[in-house]
Amino acid sequence: MTTVNKIGFKLKKHSPEILVVAGVIGTVASAVMACKATTKASDILEKAKEDIDTIHKCAANEKFAEEYTPEDVKKDLTIVYIQTGLKLAKLYAPAVALGALSLSSILASNNILRKRNVALAAAYATVDKGFKQYRNRVVERFGEEVDRELKHGIKAKKIEKVIVGEDGKEKKVKETISVVERDSLSDYTFFFDESNPYWEKDGNYNRMFLLAQQQYANDKLRANGYLFLNDVLDDLGIPRTKAGQIVGW
User: Are residues 8 and 115 in the same domain?
Assistant: First the structure.
């Protein structure tokens, strides 16, 4: 029973992918079946044409004018049309049915994903609300500075540096500075500092450069309709990331 439950759980978990694959395969198969049916449909249509021609010839023959009335002609033509339609419907029925099932499979997959996204959004809203409440409690108890340090992974670090005293002699002093732990940063946090090839010691220049790149990125987005994060990183002289290949605007 445990094995059956595990299999059922996995099938349910991957049901959207399974339904999409089944839908795509079914759509292709229905197209192939429709093509094959079309090759056979010519025989049915040819037979119907022969029957219709025969009916019209009989109707035009004066010998059968009394026995083969216009009402009989209409009746026979109706029978031929109905029989031909039924034969064509029977011929294309498997392809149409498979196509309908394939479309239903794809729509069902989309419906499952939509429901999961709704549930995910609700779960995220709950987590986000709880996190904000937690941060508010941190601020109330320890202050905004501690909250900022915890949020950005900032830690105090003691360092030694050499300074020149009033007597002109060098001496070592200890100083506490704030440092950021790279591992605690988001994948979408980047630094524009001395390690960047476009960075200069002039703060105004750096600000103008970043604003210019921002404007350029916005222009590119408006022109192309999309913009990947890695495109922006390239313009800023920052190494590409895996996330930047699929994330953007």
Answer: yes
CA dihedral sign of residues 18, 22, 25, 28: negative
Q: Which residues of 186-202 are buried (b: 16+ CB within 10 A; e: fewer)?
A: eeeebeeeeeeeeeeee
Identify any residues that bridge with 179 across adjacent strands, giving them in sequence order.
155
**Number of domains, the chain:** 3
Picking from 27, 44, 28, 156, the residue whose alpha carbon sits closest to that of residue 104 is: 27
Same domain, 137 and 34: yes
Asked if residue 133 and residue 42 are part of one domain, the reply reads: yes
Burial of 1: CB neighbours in 10 Å, binned 0-12, 13-18, 19+: exposed
Q: How far apart are CA 92 and CA 98, in angstroms?
A: 10
Q: Give the other-Cβ count within 10 Å of 44's Cβ.
A: 18
| 13, two tokens | 């978990």
- The pLDDT mean for the chain works out to 84
Assigned token pair, 91: 């011929």
Q: Hey, how many other C-beta atoms are within 10 angstroms of the C-beta on 27?
A: 17
Per the domain annotation, does 171 fall within a domain? yes
Model pTM score:
0.52
* Residue 149 within any structural domain of the chain: no
Of the chain, the percentage scoring pLDDT greater than 90 comes to: 15
Residue 212 lies in a domain: yes
